[in-house]
Write a structure and sequence with these properties.
Blueprint: H1 2-9, H2 14-20, E1 43-48, E2 55-61, E3 64-69
Antiparallel strand pairs: 1-2, 2-3
């Protein structure tokens, strides 16, 4: 989630800088031509591993991601 926010969504995202100064031989999708790169995410993602007791939440507040173990 942190990668997605940092690369694509937040103000100052990595891709925004690359679109302004493209990396040679790298393809940039046309869909990003008018993308705003000014999103702020807030919310909770419930996650589960392979084991029944392997559960946690990703909590996103103002584009900052933390992981909280489910009890």
């Amino acid at each position: 989630m942190t990668y997605i926010i940092d690369t694509f969504l937040k103000s100052g995202a990595v891709l925004a800088s690359e679109l302004a100064s493209p990396v040679p031989d790298r393809h940039y999708s046309e869909e990003f031509r008018h993308f705003t790169f000014d999103h702020e995410l807030n919310g909770v993602i419930d996650a589960r591993g392979e084991d029944e007791d392997d559960q946690w939440q990703l909590v996103v507040t103002g584009n900052t991601v933390t992981s909280v173990r489910a009890d």
